[in-house]
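User: Can you predict the 3D structure for this chain?
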Amino acid sequence: MSEELYTYSSPEMKAKIESFYPQITDRRRELLWKVASNRTRHFCMVLEDLFDPHNISAVIRTAEVFGLEDVHIIEEVNPYHVNKSILKGSIKWMNVYLYKKRMECMQHLREKGYRIAVASTNTDNSVLDLDLSKPMAFYLGSEFHGNHPDTLAAADCEFKLPQYGITESMNVSVAGGVLMCYLDHFMQKKGRTAYALSPRERDELLLEWLERHVSGDAAKSPIVHIGG
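Assistant: Here is the predicted structure, written as structure tokens:
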């Protein structure tokens, strides 16, 4: 394995991370380093009041596969219930944020520097037309009503996925997967390292993962409740 992946952000982080190594296999250590080095917060997914918790869990699982670290869930109308059979353990490696108020979510994302992009069937603007060089939070709305009018009104831009059939829309979890394919293609063309976490962020994330892996995910939950 490349020595570059073992370059820590500080001696303090090096000591903390390496203190866990005796409790894990070399193979697990190398895997966690590789995955953490490919994680990104340049893009994140936002799920607004989805009715079916299976769809939410499917998007979380897909986001983990594509290396997106954060998923934001708005449950102002419909509460989210964790579905372990769909997640397949993926949530253990994610940071998931839950909000009771949609505007609290948007404010939190804007404070982190994200532009807000909302999926809509009422626009001609393709996801391929967006300026993806800037950090962007992609909103997917509920299965029946889409995103809330207040969200649409406050968004920086609307987008739709390219499609060529008669059916107007995709299943929301499928749409999330297709969207993440486009985002991954963009990052690969530009060089994914340009969108990776900073060394400090990477080390903090790796430390979180090691704590969850060694102590159990319930000991340090990846789900954060924001606002109320």
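Helices lie at 11-18, 26-38, 53-65, 84-87, 102-111, 149-154, 172-190, 199-215. The chain has eight helices and seven strands.
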